[in-house]
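Page 47, continued from p. 46.
Same chain as before, 381 aa.
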Amino acid sequence: MRMIALLVALVAGVSLQTVAATNESENNQYDVIYEPSPQVPNAQQAVFTNIASYLDHSIAVGAFGTILIREGGGDWQQVEVPTSVLLTSISYADANHIWVSGHDGVILRSQDAGASWQRIMDGYELLEMEYPWLQEREQELQQAIENAEDEDEAYEYEYLLDELSFMIQAAEIQFDVGPTKPFLDVHFIDVETGFALGAYGTLLRTTDAGNSWEILNDRLENPRGFHLNKMIHNDQGDLFIIGEAGLLFRSQDQGSNWDLLDSPYHGSLFGGLFDQQGRLWVYGLRGNVFISEDDGESFTSVEASTRYNINSGTVMADGTIVLAGHSGTLLFIDPQDLSVQRFEHISNTVLAGIMQDRGNELALVGRAGLLQFLYPAVPNR
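Result:
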């Protein structure tokens, strides 16, 4: 199962009719990329895909371009957003600079703590970047086949060319039907340097706060174009990509070069985090959870006591790891002995995002909107 399938599940049953009726462009054609997000009185009940915080500032994003922000202990407030695409991820560089990614190749930037947003990338611009880049790769592979020293080498390049041809055909279809490629994550390591990643092995990097982007797809050993679901980094600045088919990559030079890591699981991995001890956790399909104490060189399986997909995770102030997934599943993992306590949110819904809120309270987002859960007390250690 792919991360895109999770996003589809989240928005299943949500009608576009009301939105389309109230949002029409000048040429009377609804284009979800350019139509502002509808302002509604019950925005907290929207479908949300992600939630995050920085100091006392919080943000939640979701369907129809919905963005809610909250300062300190105040109420959640919907803000104006210049797109109605399904938004997927959030990245803080600092308290003021925030990036959000979404479907149809959309990336948003705020430079005032989320009060206002600018669309700095969309699927049309992405297509204009990708198509000539793909054509250049095609010419390079054709030349490599001609220059191959033996049949085995030629066959390897032919395989890569076949996979690339599929991507070129997909891009050509988008010229006819419009952009379709989603960004599944955006990740900034400082105000200037960030990455956008997503479907079919798409990986972009910016070093000027999103004003320009370079394509890094070919830096990854991912010839079949598996989806890239999540990027995280450790305290040393090493970057990790987590993806479909168990893909795990690590970069120690801010994304210029990537090493393919031996994966503990060949099903889809949806996310990851670093705990207070600096250990790497990854999780995903069918309740699979793994921990690494050596930055991804080796992994140990954690018995999660569930077969539901795990979509998101956070580390509480006391070090407890909390993972959230389908059917309201919440897993509380002791960082010392890795014992797991399983709970189910009363909503029994898909949980797509999680963060620690005030005290022992968890803020959750998903199919049922903004939710809360008071997590159990953890014994002193």
